[in-house]
Amino acid sequence: MNIQQATRSATLNHYLGMRRQLWRKDKLVLKPTDTQNCTEMYREGKILSSRWNPNAEDLIANDWEVCAINSEELDYFRKDKY
């Protein structure tokens, strides 16, 4: 999916974020917000930085995916959903 589709999906639920597929090994996840933090960057559920700035490659990539911010939140989300 592209960055716009991933952003729409990731903002639907507090427990979800988004990432490029090539970031999986680094366990990096972005959480878009409408706050002064803009887009927050997480690793294993801990915030690394805010105000992430994409480069041109990030903006045109089609390898974006929606994911949990961390595995504990994913477990909680699954319990909530079912």
List keywords for this structure.
82 residues, alpha+beta, 3 helices
The largest sheet, given as strand count, sense and whether it forms a barrel, is: 3 strands, antiparallel
Instruction: Give the rounded overall mean pLDDT.
Output: 89
Silhouette: globular
Strand order of the largest sheet: 2-3-4
What is the rounded distance between the termini?
26 Å
Structure description:
The chain has 82 residues and is an alpha+beta fold. 29% of the residues lie in helices and 29% in strands. It is built from three helices and five strands, in the order H-E-E-E-E-H-E-H. Strands 2-3-4 form a three-stranded antiparallel β-sheet, with no helix packed on it. A two-stranded antiparallel ribbon has the order 1-5. It is globular, with a radius of gyration of 12 Å. The N and C termini lie far apart (26 Å). The relative contact order is 0.25.
Summarize the structure.
By secondary structure, the chain is of the alpha+beta class. It has helices spanning 3-10, 56-60, 71-81, and strands at 16-20, 28-32, 39-43, 46-49, 64-68. The strands form 2 sheets. The chain has a 3-stranded antiparallel β-sheet, with no helix packed on it. A two-stranded antiparallel ribbon has the order 1-5.
